[in-house]
Amino acid sequence: MNNTMLAAIAESAQAPLVVRSIDRPVPARGQVLVRVHAAGLNPLDGKIAAGAAAHARQALPAVLGLDLAGTVVELGAGVENFAPGDEVFGMAGGIGGAQGSMADYIAVDARLIAPKPRQLSMREAAAVPLVFITAWEGLVDRANVRAGQRVLVHGGAGGVGQMVVQLARARGAEVYATGSAASLDFIRALGATAIDYQNEVVEDYVERYTAGEGFDIVYDTVGGTTLDAAFRSVKSYTGHVLSCLGWGQHSLAPLSFKGATYSGIFTLLPLLSGRGREHHGAILREAAALADAGQLSIRMDPQRYGLNAANEALRQVVQGGGQGKTVIELLAGLSADPA
After folding, report:
1. Looking at the 3D structure of the chain, how many domains does it have?
2. Which terminus of the chain is less hemmed in, N or C, by CB atoms within 10 Å?
3. What's 119's domain CATH number?
4. How far apart are CA 186 and CA 228, in angstroms?
5. Known Pfam families for this protein (predicted)?
6. pLDDT, tens only, 201-246
């Protein structure tokens, strides 16, 4: 095996990514070396490239990319649950000083990955990890979503939002989701009742769908004033608000006067702290089971990108102009020559 590989590197803040040859990593104890077939991109990758994501602790220059799908090619010492040739997926790099997935190979902690869903392509599987883990940590780990509950998802057509909708439905909840007029048909196709947030105020849809009681679980994937709206729409006493973007300054009074609860979701924590990594692998096995049972899919942007188009792909993610998740394919016949 060649001891070098191609990778897309953010060399300095706000500079274009550069595709060049670097040393291929060697798996350390507890790691596996994965031949990357596809690298899923997320808005955080754009923030890191812009030098605007201090919470990700990823100093530049760095190889970007948190999500991946690929094939195990080599095992580090102590790894017993994977073998060369296994197809895997995971959120396993790109922050905290670790190499990202926008490269031919990546050495990853074996606890962070899981067998790839059989019913998803490598491209689709690479789009799932971060958004599904974020959905699960809120809905299941914090709120214990279950049958008989009403769940409201703010931003139901987004990456995390579509996972929240599908996961809540798979666990028997009745699901409602807000979106813009252009996204309502997609939200309905996921099986949720669609709410046009631009044309209906919180109190109106709370009255219409819950007889004024409020929703059992409200998952905010948007942040800002949308989180404030979530506090106003949750059920008294037993209601639970979740947010993966609760980073601003908010008044807790509307939530407190309802006697309801709030949980913040910070999906990166196991990668940054080293604690709880096994749980991420377990969550991804749940994702694979749902996908293989036909209960989980992911909307992909129809535009296809090779490594040589990394800047274009990242621009698409940052500007939010795509029609689904953006993925870079490294083993799909797309050119990977440096631009």
Report:
1. 2
2. N
3. 3.90.180.10
4. 25
5. ADH_N, ADH_zinc_N
6. 999 999 999 999 999 999 999 999 999 999 999 999 999 999 999 9
